[in-house]
Amino acid sequence: MSEISVTVNGEKHREEVEPRLLLVHWLREQLRLTGTHVGCDTSQCGACTVVMDGKSVKSCTVLAVQADGSELLTIEGLGKDGLHPVQQGFWDQHGLQCGYCTPGMIMAAYQLLQSQPDPSEAEIRTGLRGNLCRCTGYQNIVKAVQQAAETTR
Amino acid sequence: MTTMTTTERPPKLIGEPIKRREDPRLITGQGTYVDDLQPAGTLHMAIVRSPYAHARVTRIDVSAARQAPGVVDVLTPDEVKQNSEPIPVAAQLEGMQMPVRYALTGDEVRFVGEPVVAVVAEDRYLAADAAALVEVEYEELPVVVDPEAALESGGALVHEELGTNLCVVSPIGDAEAAGRAIDGAEVVIRQRLMNHRLIPNPIEPRAVLAHYEPGPATMTVWSSTQIPHLLKTLLSGCVRLPEQRFRVVAPDVGGGFGCKLNVYPEEILAALASRRLERPVKFVETRQENFVATIHGRDLIGHVELGAKRDGMLVGCRIKVIADIGAYQHLLTAAIPTLTALMLQGCYKIPALSGEIVEVFTNKTPTDAYRGAGRPEATYYLERSMDLLAAELGMDPAELRRKNFIRADEFPFETTTGAIYDSGDYETSLDKALAVVGYSDLRNEQARLRREGCYLGVGLATYVEICGVGPSSSMPAGGWEMGTVRVERTGKVTVLTGVSPHGQGEETSFAQIVAERLGVEMDDVTIIHSDTAQVSAGIGTFGSRSLAVGGTALVMSLDKVEAKAKRFASHAMELKADDVEFEAGRVFVKGSPEKAMTLPEIATLAYNAVDLPPDTEPGLEATSYFEPGNCTYPFGTHVAVVEVDPISGTIDLQRFVSADDCGNIINPMIVEGQIHGGLAQGIAQALYEEAVYDENGQLLTGSLMDYAVPSADQLPTFELASTVTPTDVNPLGAKGVGEAGTIGSTPAVVNAVVDALSPLGIKHIEMMLRPQRVWEAIESAKKGAR
Prior knowledge:
The structure holds two protein chains of two kinds. By secondary structure, chain A is of the alpha+beta class. Helices cover 36% and strands 16% of the residues of chain A. Chain A contains six helices and five strands. Chain B is α+β, with helices and mostly antiparallel strands. At the A-B interface, α1, α3, α4, α5 and α6 of A face α1 and α18 of B.
């Protein structure tokens, strides 16, 4: 077992974990932050996307021990003080259907807007390439991110 | 009685793009999917699967696995066979061969991924560790991969005991008449068309949590399913527990697309293990398991012959379909290709049509319903054939279609395959799509670009499909739906529905219907679904039936609630029921709208029950079952515009226009979302997705690294148009839209690519249109021309 110290959504956690434990399982099963989902095992779908030290990562491809000392933001933390503009955009523009890819998609979109506050449609589509949605055909996700970009500009 | 100061109606809700009520929980991480549930003491199950497509199992040794840390139980085939019934098969066709299959396979495995042993441990890591310690010895057997070769005698057999790989042959139409028509036709096109195998890939893999509680002797199963009520009946039977003490809950479900419309081995195994261990047992599929162990879709070869006169009038169609159904039947496997047969006539008048649907076993994952389920295949065959015919005749493909359409004044229309189309206006839909895309300008542009050596293509598909399934006579487990409307004492409204939405937004659209009819705020209406302990009965969500069938059950209950409210109010006001009217949440006196009672006032009377009207029971609640008299037949026109790079064979899908008609619309925002998603899946079949097996029956496209579920940068912005042709099959006039997008889009894209390359003499390229295949077609056309 290894001890890790991680700040998640502003709250500090110090815990013993197995070295092989995936970050996503630590978040979901030990911290019970189940908003972060698992959709594949090859880092394609992005349902597990969280923001680690300001960068979006696929938490199914990060070991919990690798997160030691880092600051994490998950979907639960994003809207702690009311809906974040990205969340609002997804709601207003019907950017989700089954909702399973949505937390990861929102975190990826949040991180995209951090680095590119005014993306073109093509940049949004390319920027979200690492996240798969099977329901929406992405059109309303693009609109959601555009709305979020406009409201935060 | 309240004297109302205003008689204004509350805002109109039906037909409005109301934002979804499901979303606040889903965008904040507060949704509850099966894997989010973790009752105290939950165990995890891992499955040992066959690595071979066909092999005899000669030895299973689980002793090391039993000793592994954290292991609580190991289930082997013999025990499973003793303690459970076979995996249910609901679609049973006449003369069908039906091998028996249990949740674990004992002596022989018949596809890669078939479950052999189940291991239950304290957590998912330990379960996976222990599963790796299970030793299974296999003796490889000859593998059947090609469904056409599988039909030849003397070859390898998937099921030795059947003596054949043929599952069933279903004829349709009048073979003699179709034969005469084809023989006498002035022009006949003949083409083999492959509608290849797809893997549904909902982003939430399958998940199940079974919890047997010994005290009350009850089983609760949370499953990522589209059919909680059918699953309750079938699964309780499989594990031999009484249905009335068996509860199934589908919490938030992360997409289904047909593949969660089934009873799976892992559901049986989790229930068996939980019953034995008296602890909750959870199984969550990995994505790579999902690729081999969840049903696949499509995989139908069509040999099409389409005959016409020189002027383009169709005279006959004959088709032989060979369906590769994989190693076993699942719940509806055998029925899916018969939907292809039913819809072969499409939007056209075809005087003679016949077909033969041949379903074949191979050593592959079983197929079953995948979004569209039979209609995309039929539409692909017909719409590719129409373009081949147009090319042969030198006619514009839009004009050829227009010439053969069933006209708007000819509905209801009975097809030669036996479908009765309820309503339609195909020409208006075509006109609308052509106007949006700017068809004649595009053709001019295409001619100009061709002179410059650019390959622009325009592809059309007109489609009619089948939704709102369906009359119970056409369904193995009933085609009705149930809906309860309960006005509570306070006037708030609880709605129970037997459909099981998993992304389709009925918590919103059903509330729109109920709130508008009862004149209450949407916040005062709660829609409860997908829990068999709360909702008495239901069939589920598939076949674009939720609104057309489930919504109608609610409309029937609303009618009953309104009638009863009128009885209570008129009795209280000392009037006859005929003297009052129900509108917008109040019952008022005809001619004196200021004299009225509100819904909460009436509800109080109904539940206090101190002065009941004659022959009236207390309470203000109604339950209805709607049995539709027919299916519904939505339709539309899809147009794709592509440019093909002749050097690399890559395809740039520049535009996609979709004109769809799903009858009356409750929430246009949700309808557009359904179309977008369907288009993405239909376009992806043409351009990106294909399940590929090698000659050993190994799935080469067995993960998201190898199977291209499209990402945002691989799809265009869709241009939607719509027409509205209501149906009279249900009082809502709604037809259904869940699958429409997948149906016309695939042939539209392929038609566009072939159109682009037609100057090279290319008449057909087989899907999926990977650049290499397109490039090879271009190269071989160039060589042929030299």
